[in-house]
Amino acid sequence: MRNPPKPFASNQTLCRIPYDDANATEVLAQALVRSLLPHVHQREFLCLAIGTDRSTGDALGPLVGSQLAQLAPQGLTIYGTLDEPVHAMNLKEQIEQIHRRHPNAFILSVDACLGQYKHIGMISLQEGSLRPGAGVNKRLPEVGDLSFTCVVNAGGFMEYFVLQNTRLAHVIKMAQVMAGSIHLAFTRLHRMAYKDGPLVTIQSLDKKMSPKGDQRGEFSTG
User: Fold this and answer.
1) What residue segments make up the domains of the chain, in order of their start?
2) Per UniProt, which keywords does this protein have (predicted)?
3) Which terminus in the chain has less CB density within 10 A, N or C?
4) Amino acid 135: pLDDT
5) CB 138, CB 88: distance < 8 Å
């Protein structure tokens, strides 16, 4: 009998907010800047967006990756797009390639996850590695220094069917918020670290951030 998948709650949550909150992009960008700024001069930044467009729910990662590729944030290398997805079948190979090409990379892992019905649409930024595939009982290598996920649907029963029948319109909107916040964060990081110093004041929106929210039962889809 295989061990149950490890829930995301094992990692410290830095920010958690619904994708349709009016301040979601700003709040997530602030959390990303706080997490990434200490590493600006020591590490190369890389976004690994995991998933496949063969399943609407699991398309979140490659949608984020493709939108980032169009936005082209300075200082960020992107792996995982709609044209060149990173998924269960090639994840191990891609991770090995990343470690060879980018040995000092700070990896932001992006993926969809399944969770409780009340948490659908919740975007989370967490410290530590992502475990892709846990939501559909796949054993895949953990990856990343930061995990950036969104609950695309409810889990616990017929996960593959649930992912296949997740509304694409909602997933696209989730991806837009996540990609937008990453782009905004790297725009600010570039200005703060490489040009004129801390031009951007990171105003506190702590009331919008809920790092202690209940995340039991949320698992990455991979």
Assistant:
1) 12-205
2) Hydrolase, Protease
3) N
4) 52
5) yes
